[in-house]
Amino acid sequence: MKICLTSKNRKYQQVIIIILALFGFTSCSVAEHEAEQVEAKTPSNSKSFTDWCNQKSKLPQATRHTVELLLKRADTSDCVKANQYLSKSTMLVLGDNKISDIKPLSSLTNLTSLWLNDNKISDIKPLSSLTNLTGLSLFNNQISDIKPLSSLTNLRAVSLYNNKIVDIKPLSSLTNLRLLWLHDNQISDIQPLSSLTNLEELHLFNNKISNIQPLSSLTNLIKIRLNDNQISDIKPLSSLTNLTDLSLNDNQISDIKPLSSLTNLTYLSLNDNQISDIKSLSSLTNLTYLWLKNNQISDIKSLSSLTNLTEVLLYNNQIKDKNCPLRKDVCWWVES
């Protein structure tokens, strides 16, 4: 399957290529402007893009703006030709376009990847019909209600960061998810994530989370970001033995013993917590980066077994003996 990335989308190409690689797509040259020849499937109870386009002059300004953007993407002013192109397209990039009304997208049911980040969107109901989506980008919008996403069970990657989301229950049905970005929202209850056992990467930093018990079932996780929350008990992380990348900065953690089982970790960041005892880290022999600044650590001898470390941040602790138990250039005592 091939997807065209035109020069109009250049700003997003690097990120898009990563997601496309995940889904097994290949890109094509701009010359191959025709979208994949898939039969368009428009629900009988919804308007086609042709309908929206033919009514363009009578539409509210916000809706008309979206129609005009879609005509531009189709590279035609002809409503029928635009509908033919758009209804066969499997990928659409509309990030950073001042969009607030996405109703004209509701009939584009062959889409598998949709980029709507950096807009002014609050109502995402029109997305509920796009059940072939595997990748969806909605970061930097004004979204609070994500119920319409519950029907999009083919999704593998979803980016919802920097919105106004509190309730994530609708995500519980998205069991095919591999990548999920939810940071910079207002989330406290993460119980709905417990069913997402295929997740490999999860970003939850800068929310209001204190209880991380629901994460204990996510044993396929490789990377998780939990910075800037209200976490004190990290026992639920002990089962996540596939983790290679873990960040817990700016929480209320004092006991890090549960981390001792995470022997695949290569990156661990624990800055700005209440940690004094780091003996439990001695089993993490695959670590290459360890960040421990702004804690209450006084003894670092237990780090001597971590011979793969290339960088340890230790400044703003209570360490008196500043002899690095590893190579001298590995330990950083003062912030540069």
Automatic annotation (TrEMBL):
**PROSITE patterns (UniProt xref):** LRR, PROKAR_LIPOPROTEIN
Please name one Pfam family that this protein belongs to.
LRR_4
Q: Could you say which residues form the signal peptide? A: 1-31
Has the keyword RNA-binding been applied to this entry?
no
The domain of life for this entry's organism is: Bacteria
Its taxonomic path starts at:
Bacteria, Bacillati, Cyanobacteriota, Cyanophyceae, Nostocales
Q: Does the keyword Nucleus apply?
A: no
Keyword field: Leucine-rich repeat, Repeat, Signal
Descriptive protein name: Uncharacterized protein
The record lists the organism as Dulcicalothrix desertica PCC 7102
User: Which SUPFAM superfamilies does this one have?
Assistant: L domain-like
